[in-house]
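Throughout this chapter, every protein is written as a compact record of paired, labelled lines. An example of such a record is reproduced below:
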Amino acid sequence: MTLKRIHTGYLLGLSLLISSVIYFFASNWQGIGRIEKIMLAIGLMLLFFVVATLLSRFQHSQRFLERWLWLIGTIAFGVSIALIGQTYNSHADSYVLYLIWMVPAVIFGILTGYKAFYVLSFLLSQLAFYFYVFPTSYFPDWKPETALILVFVYLLITHAWFFLSSSSWLRSNWLMFGSFCLIQLVFIASSFGYWEYSMLLAWIYIGYGVINVFLWKHREARELFILSGIALGLFLFGKMLEGLGDVLGDLLPFFLLVVVGIIVFLTTKYLPRLERSEKGSDTWKRVFKSSILFVVTVVCTVMLISAFSGILFLIFSWDNAIAFVFSSLLLLLLPGLALKKKIPFLSTILLLSGLSILSSANLIDAFSNGFQPETIVVMLISFCTIGAVLKLITNAWIGSYAYLLANGVLLLFLFKVEESLLSMDSYEPLLLLILVLGNGLVHILGSDGWFNLNALVYSIVPLFILTFFFEGQWLYWLLNSVFLVLTTLLVFYKPWQSNSFRYWVGLVLWYAFLIYKYYDIAWSLVHKSITLVVAGLVVLVITQSVSRKYKETTVEESTFVANRWKSIWLVVILMVSFVAYNGIKNEVALQSGKEIRLALTPVDPRSMLQGDYVTLRYDISTLPGATNLPANKKIKVILSPTSEKTYEYGGYYKIEGNWNKPYEPSDKDVVVNGITYSDHDVQYGIESFFIPEGEGQVVEDKTMAIIKVSENGNALLLELD
């Protein structure tokens, strides 16, 4: 077993263990009480930290395990915080959860220098901001000015991460490129649409993009220069299409055709100059040239597809698939094949455009005309044409795209045959097995190359899709088992692992399978948790036993927490204290608070860390007569008893130290704390009621919520009635 496979074994084993913890707590299993849940969460978190500390006390050659265990313990801390919210029915996926979780992750990163802590902190900061802007339990009515401020705040935060990732003491390419791409994405996404400030952000981004291009042109990180140019080019192209669509109308396709011609002419004219000026040692120039070709190819392909389709639509109608197929074959694909050696750049554009129009014609024809003789002819011609392109071209990117379309046309044909002749009904997804077996055979019999690797992808991905179906049937377990065996072989089987592409395909799909099964309702989260913990332990035991026989030739590292373990354990103690304090605080509030009943209306989603819950809306969520309340402000609301032994809004509230009208305190009234989120709506922190997995229907008929309100006005949700 190679060192790579040993590391992978430990990685998968630990991943299974932490997944089992998340699955178990998300199930909200009722066999454990509130206090026991908190203690169990603390115990599991400490287990990872203690094992990591014990490993640091011994000499061994697998120091990576210490780093991973500290990271997993930090993840377990976040799960513990989420468990408190679940146990005491606090906010689902609250942004505060991720902010608190981020604090020890950042501190551990500073103390240990382990970059994975910073990557975790970055992801948590993104989640915190996302759930602040888009909370799950209510929809904040952000005003355009506030939304603009939020965009700028996000850009400021992400820029801070970007500059930190480039600093000498951090140096993380993951963070640098991740934050840079997110900045471009948010800028571009905010610059389109019909909201009030899209045009302002568009002009700001143009200036920002131009500055980026010139700023990174002469810096060491030339990749950022290329990314900036690609992002700015695609943005300007999108804005051009957005503006010209309304102005030119039916003339737009002809205009785009002319633009494509001009761009192709200029590129073919000036590209040789760039090649002649290129020095062999200047790798970035070659990358720059490739990037220019990539952007121009994408832009020209999209414009040519739009122009060609628009012109054909003016001449024919969308249901005339034969016309589209033969037009793309004669005017795009054949010229593209003829020019593949003379002008490869233009050939790529023509081939990509022709293949796209060809496959689109099949899709439209199949859904508009059903399974007619003409449909069969169109599909056969298309399939043979794509096959000819695959045979005649050597470009891996075009070949991969053509291979995808060939599988798509074949699958479409199979589904139309089934629909018209076989009527398999619930077993229709089994048609994907033809792709699995066919592509698998091609991969096994073929030689290494892009064609062979595509065959691997289109054999294993359809099998992954099949694991979504047939829940509760023997076929479900068979397909899932076969998929797990195959992906595990891709990762661990030595003859296959020698190819890194196979290894990464197997690893990515293995984790995709693990994540997907969280939402799979074929078996409960509790049973999944038990299965995962057993599987994790088995993988770890096997990996450990095999790794003992493997003599590692690398020099043993010193523990990465050397001379810092006191500071690190101080942070751990604070983490444990925080979890324990919040559990005790909520428990005391439940025991000493005043019990009241409120009317409600539920709906049913799921939280990733906290499991199933119902989102509740109360009569007191809207304050009648209250208008123009400032958003995101603390508010105290007076609740008064009714003759039905429930409580309702008493007509008084206090915000920013001022009552809406004079109020005389009464022993019968209850003061409850909240947060405003629109002109007259309030959140009280009791809008999420967590339930055992699959019991959403049990609470659909509930009309009352039993609440405990502490002396300081904080509310906790007990149960529904």
Q: What stands out?
A: The longest helix spans residues 283-315. The mean pLDDT is 81.
